[in-house]
Amino acid sequence: MLRSVIAITVLCASVTAALADGSCKSVAGDKKLSGAAMNSFMKKCQTDAKATCETTANGRKLYGAAKASFTKKCLSDATGT
User: What is the DSSP letter of 80?
Assistant: First the structure.
């Protein structure tokens, strides 16, 4: 149980830091990524963002349509799409 709490805390902190810097798209642009490097970065960034958004929704005890709406908005903000 303690491992789970620590893992969630670290994940939230890392994604929050990434989101504070901007969306996945803007960070990739700042790093001047292109081609395979950009694809790889975007895939990892989107996966991390999805996990964080779902964890946040669960932490807020959102269910059904509220969870779906929150997750969709959260992912849109995080990825810049």
Answer: T
The amino acid occupying position 79 is: T
Q: What is the pLDDT of residues 51-79, one digit of tens each?
A: 999 999 999 999 999 999 999 999 999 98
* Residue 72 belongs to domain spanning: 2-79
The number of distinct structural domains making up the chain is 1
Residue 64 backbone dihedrals phi, psi, to 5 degrees = 60, -135
Burial tier of 15 (Cβ tally within 10 Å: 0-12, 13-18, 19+): buried
**Tens of pLDDT, residues 5-18:** 454 554 455 445 44
DSSP letters for 9-54: HHHHHHHHHHHHH--HHHHHHHTT--HHHHHHHHHHHHHHHHHHHH
